[in-house]
Design brief:
Number of strands: 0
Number of domains: 1
Helix content: 55-70%
Number of helices: 3
Length: 85
Amino acid sequence: MMEPHIDIILAFASKDRSTVDLQPLLKNLLLDKNTEFLFGKSQKWFVSDTTSKEIAEFDAAFDRAHVGTHTRDLLRNSAPCEAAT
């Protein structure tokens, strides 16, 4: 399941043995795995240009949704519990 993505990271890392910034690669890996889970197929953004406007817009929307979901979960869990009657 993760092997094709790991192979792509290794391909980037082994091109010329120079230092590789893993953050954009891992972020795109996360986006690909999440879109594969949510939509049933990967959007193949992992292998595309990481400066693409579409990727940046989707990434920002995904981050906003994640923060909203996390905030809602924190607020729900911190609300005072009603006593069982």
